[in-house]
Fold this sequence. Notes:
Layout (H helix, E strand, L loop, with lengths): L21 H9 L2 E5 L5 E5 L2 H9 L3 E2 L31 H10 L4 H6 L1 H18 L3 E2 H6 L1 H11 L6 H11 L8 H24 L5 H6 L5 H31 L2 H9 L4 H12 L4 E6 L3 E3 L2 E3 L4 E5 H4 L34 H18 L4 E2 L8 E2 L9 E2 L3 E3 L1
Parallel strand pairs: 2-8
Antiparallel strand pairs: 1-2, 3-5, 4-12, 5-8, 6-7, 9-12, 10-11
Helix pairs in contact: 5-7, 5-15, 7-11, 8-9, 9-11, 11-15, 13-15
Amino acid sequence: MTHTAVELPTQRTPGCPFDPPAELTRISAESSLTPLAFSDGHEGWLATGHTLIRRVLADPRFSSRIELMHSPLPGSQRMEPPAGPGFFISMDAPEHTRYRKLLTGKFTVRRMKLLTERIERVTTEHLDAMERHGGPVDLVAAFAQPIPSIVICELLGVPYEDRQSFQDDVATLFADEDAQTRDEQYEALGALRTYVGRLVAAKRVTPTDDLLSDLTTGELTDDELTGIGVLLLAAGLDTTTNMLALGTFALLRHPDQWAALCAEPELVDSAVEELMRYLSIVPNLARVALEDIELDGHLVKAGSTVLLASSVANRDPAKFADAHTLDLRRNPVGHTGFGHGVHQCLGQQLARVEMRVAFTALAARFPGLRLAVPADEVPLRNAGNSTAIYGASALPVTW
């Protein structure tokens, strides 16, 4: 069976901000693996089937090394350099294994649950401030951004009072390339490395009670620890913020689901998993074949980049019944919102705790929460870039 190579669809349908691009869904209905034309002339593959994507993510013959990957975005011609020390998400074994083993014990379910009381206090403080202010407020600035920011800063030992600087750098790093050039993103990454590097040096001299200080007592070099710190800080700031903002937006656009969560707070566990599935704020991942591999009846040659459309896999009707419907009572076991395999999100348990606490408290405090602007006026970030983290830049709400 042969297929003509397609270009990656990136535009979401107006009025459907939570759905993957309609053309991407159409392609998926025809085949779970399709040749993909990259802007630099490379011909790779687009994987959309749920089972197929999990298979690739679990197969060590597919590499996460960023320097081997091609970008499917229009105009992208430049290959990335190899990952710097500590940037383990863009490495393979044995380098990835070494870093991951050092960090896994820091992010266990038990340790993250111990943070629940602190997360509850931080959440209550911000809900109190919202109530004193009165509506309308921007839920991103008042709630979705500060809660994970405070938590990750305390966990890593990063002074929260420095947040404006590193939050701006993180925002630049994850911005759509229409808004920021690659040079600006590299500059932001350099600034983050400089900031975290100084912090690491200080903790070598005067350790405190935090994760970065714990790691200074081990085998990591300053460069490695700086890379890890940048990675954890950036991920901890950005991903959960976007899940809280976009998740609330989705719930308010599905008032029956919002009402269910308000009436039955015990739904929150399944609600978090369903929102992860339904929204897929990391819409795509990528891997590179290290050898010739037969996949879904096709020969994927060594060196081929395979783009893994998680947003479509999470709407795969072969895995999830009525897949395009948001249903908080669903049990979406096996969704790829946190990835899969050895690179599955290290901080997923922390993110789960933050979302469970935040959504439960928000629904209890403001059951009458509603959008303060028409839905099509909510500003979305990276809406036209399906390889970047998706979310809401602002979410004006009232009650």
